[in-house]
Amino acid sequence: MASSNTGQPGTGQARAGTAQATESLRTRQRAEGLASTLPPLLVAAERVASTVAQGVHGRRRVGLGETFWQFRRYQPGDSPTMIDWKQSAKTQPVYVREKEWEAAQSVWLWRDRSPSMDYRSAPGLPTKRERADLLVLATSVLLVRGGERVALLNSGARPDHGRHALDRMTNLLTDPRAASAPDPLPRPEPLPRHAQVVLYGDLLSPLPEIHATVSALAGRGLRGHLVQVLDPAEETLPFDGRVEFEGLEGEDELLVPRVEAVRQAYLERLHAHRDGLAALARTAGWSFATHRTDRPPQAALLALWGALAQAPV
To answer: What is the pLDDT at residue 7?
Structure first.
């Protein structure tokens, strides 16, 4: 009797299909496992940056490298480790040795970690701190993709590039040991001339204090960008009737019998403060932008990216 093989080809195809499906499932599981190890903040920042990157072009850069860039005379604020003693011994002035990345390519980011940044007016909104952290990391993603070096100001870390820079930035932003700080403005520290700084915060400190910080940074030849992050309630004061306001930074509680009676005066004072921020930024040659936590972070990042792209390199 003759035997029939008509079912064998179909069986082989089914087995191959099953094996392929199994391997696909394993690949997907590995990918999901890898993604699950990424901090949620980094995942969100990558998404924000990807959206913005679709509509912008890269920045002009001098080029990457740790190579020697130039000698220049020592200035107050320079780190002693930058001094080139051999060059300085030849002449009377003291000279420092700048590397290429120090001269033109480092971008230092900072976000306010003072208690006032923990405010949100509604459960569905992010706190100001959460939004500032997201913007700092999303900015870092865009800069790293463009080949720039980034660092978190006041962290003690030097600028770095590539995936390692993003991992380190994420760790610094999410480290519970650095969850809060009393200072609403960055501490002065030596930074390489011609670098850029980006400051995210509610910027509600007195204008003279902010002016002193900006002047100290701009005086070193740094170009900077101020981004004010506010909750929508801080911009509109939408409350009515008798409201008790609780200070987040040790201020006394304030009981207002009729909030609507003081709303106009509050808005005028807020607008005056914001005009002052814009004026001091303009005087220093910096940019200034505002962002509300109820609006997409992509809008703030796109505006900042435009300002960064216009900066000389």
So the answer is: 46
CA distances from 249 to 88, 113, 246 (A): 48, 12, 9
Residue 285 phi, psi dihedral angles, 5° rounding: 80, 20
pLDDT at 218: 93
Return d(Cα 154, Cα 83) in angstroms, integer.
Answer: 22
What is the C-alpha separation between 114 and 202, in angstroms, rounded?
10
The C-alpha atoms of residue 138 and residue 182 are separated, in whole angstroms, by 25
pLDDT digits (tens, 9 = 90+) for 73-87: 665 545 566 676 666
* pTM summary value: 0.73
Question: CB–CB of 195/143 below 8 Å?
Answer: no
> In whole angstroms, what is the distance from residue 129 CA to residue 149 CA?
23
Q: Are 159 and 106 in contact (CB under 8 A)?
A: yes
Q: Which tens digit of pLDDT belongs to each residue from 27-65?
A: 655 544 544 444 688 888 888 888 887 655 444 443 444
| Choices 3.40.390, 3.30.230, 2.60.40, 3.40.50: CATH for 40-59+105-310 | 3.40.50
Domain with CATH 3.40.50 in the chain: 40-59+105-310
> Positive or negative, the Cα torsion across 119, 125, 126, 129?
negative
Residue type, 231: D
